[in-house]
Amino acid sequence: MKVNPSKFLKKLHQNKFLIIVHRGSHGGNIIENTSDAVKVSQLQHADIVEMDISMSTDNDFFVFHDGEEKRLLDENRNIQELSTAEINSKHFRNALGDTISKSVETFDYFYNHINHDVFLNIDRSWDYWDTFLPELDNYEVMREYFILKSPVKREYLEKLNNHSVQYLYFPIVTNVEELEVLADYPNLNIVGFEIIEKGLRFELVNAPAFDKYRNGDYMFLSNSIRLNDKNVLFGGLDDNLALLSGMDQSWTKTLDFGINAIQTDWPDVLNEYRSHLI
Asked: What's the pTM value of the predicted model, to 2 decimals?
């Protein structure tokens, strides 16, 4: 069964571009990848909230980006090496590094503590699709609001293509050849593309191979998030450049490439910029 994309397309069409919040809005005592972060994202006019999935050794699903254990939990082990009981015993550290009462949320807890009309971009679940996709099927009320993503790897695409529910999906595309791979999986419910431009020439986003998708019905997503000083996600057009050198130097140039969705860590500022576009 292919999930109807009409709600997503309505959201896409009614905005100059979509605002996607990286791990939800967080800061202070509001922790990333929590139901609290989703609530704040909506206050800051986000259209989609990105969140991450990890799995315990007991095969329970948690909303957490593995690799962030030391920073957020003062834990040296990867969350995937921890039992459910061990994860439940951990408490977050806030933006100041102080330990607070908040714990890592299971996907079920997360789901039951957010509004069910918010679009969720579910990231980093692909390694668990054998079990996570059947689990996701249980949350039917939000089925039209779940948007999966993954790198373009056949081992992931095969599982998604053959699952009984074809969820809304966009691939993380790093080269034109990956579009040819996608064509081998006709059941994919593709609603857009996350375009990674590691260089400064923007050859991928301008590639003729994308032309058949430039009809307004597909999301072309760029990453404005700046993870560090090394990783370039969209040709150097990022949040830092927008905030410190001027929005026209970053976000305006991004939109000039036909981008219609921007992932950011600063949704309120990006929304203010969007509200002033003609």
From this structure: 0.98
Cβ atoms of 264 and 224 within 8 Å: the answer is yes
Q: How far apart are CA 244 and CA 247, in angstroms?
A: 8
The closest of 13, 77, 87 to 47, measured between CA atoms, is: 13
Q: CB neighbours (10 Å) of residue 265?
A: 21
pLDDT, tens digit, 9 for 90 and up, residues 62-88:
999 999 999 999 999 999 999 999 999
Rounded to an integer, what distance in angstroms lies between the CA atom of residue 185 and that of residue 228? 34
The pLDDT score that the predictor gives to residue 216 is 95
Burial class (CB in 10 A: 0-12, 13-18, 19+), 23: buried
Which amino acid would we find at residue 190?
Answer: I
Beta-carbon neighbour count of residue 151 at 10 Å? 15
Condensed to tens digits (0 to 9), the pLDDT of residues 179-196 reads 999 999 999 999 999 999
Q: Maximum Cα–Cα distance for the chain, whole Å?
A: 52
Strands (E) in 143-244, as ranges, are: 146-151, 168-173, 189-190, 192-195, 219-223
How far CA 257 is from CA of 59, 65, 207, 250, 253, in Å, comes to 42, 30, 11, 11, 7
Residues 6+ apart with CB under 8 A from 252: none
Confidence of residue 278 (pLDDT cuts 50, 70, 90): confident
- Distances 212 to 142, 144, 147 between C-alpha atoms, Å: 30, 24, 22
